Structures are given as structure tokens and as C-alpha cells.
Amino acid sequence: MPPKKPAAPLSFHENVIRQVRSIPRGEVRSYAQVALYAGRPGAARGVGRELKLLPGTATQVPWWRVIRSDGTLAPPVAHEQARRLRLEGVTVAERGQVFRVALKDREDS
Question: For residue 49, which phi and psi values (nearest 5 degrees)?
Fold first, then answer.
């Protein structure tokens, strides 16, 4: 039997989706953190673009758990994002800012 071909490396899109899916319920990560964990430090805007391309009804990828580095939510979906985060127990201020305690660094084990 011939040896298996090695798996192709994951694309940036696939890495972003994998990282976003790994964010636990009730926690958030910044676009910059997701970019770093996806292997592209400095590609925070690229993460935003990848998440924007998801279908409008996508719930299997918890896009609402990704916020700006300053803790604010990104328009034009900020109201829906805040609603979903609150359902998960994340405290979101009326002005649309997530309290910093929810923005955690990933533990590397």
C-alpha cells in the first residue's frame, strides 16, 4: 500500500474558523489574538474579513465571541453580538464594551 500523502496545511480561513470555534462559551478573544493563534500575527483585519464572509445565519462558528482589542464590539453587528454575548453570561456595557476580565489569553499547555 503506498504511503499516505501528508495533509495539506490549513489555509488562513480554516485556521481562523478553528480558532474561533475553540473559544469557550462565555469568553471572548480579540481579532488580534485569533490572528496570532491562527499563525498570522498582525492579521487582525484579515480575521475580520474571514468572519464577515460567513453566512448570515452561521451559528456553528461563534463569530460573536471575537471583539476588538479595546473590548468594543464592531458595527454593523454590534447589537446582535451584544445580545448573543449576554446570553452566554458575558457582561457588555450599554455603550457596547465588553469588560476586560472576559478577554482572556489562551493557556498554552
Answer: -65, -45
Phi, psi of 94 (to 5 degrees): -55, -30
Residue 92 lies in a domain: yes
Count of alpha carbons within 13 angstroms of residue 39, beta-carbon side: 10
Contact 57, 100 (CB under 8 A): no
Q: Cβ neighbours of residue 52 under 8 Å, at least 6 residues apart?
A: none
pTM, to two decimals: 0.81
* Longest CA–CA separation in the chain, Å: 62
- Domains held by the chain: number: 1
Nearest residue to 65 via CA among 9, 11, 107, 106: 106
Give domain status of residue 108, yes or no: no
User: Per-residue pLDDT tens for 39-90?
Assistant: 999 999 999 999 998 886 667 899 999 999 999 998 888 999 999 999 999 9
Domain extent, residue 30, equals 12-102
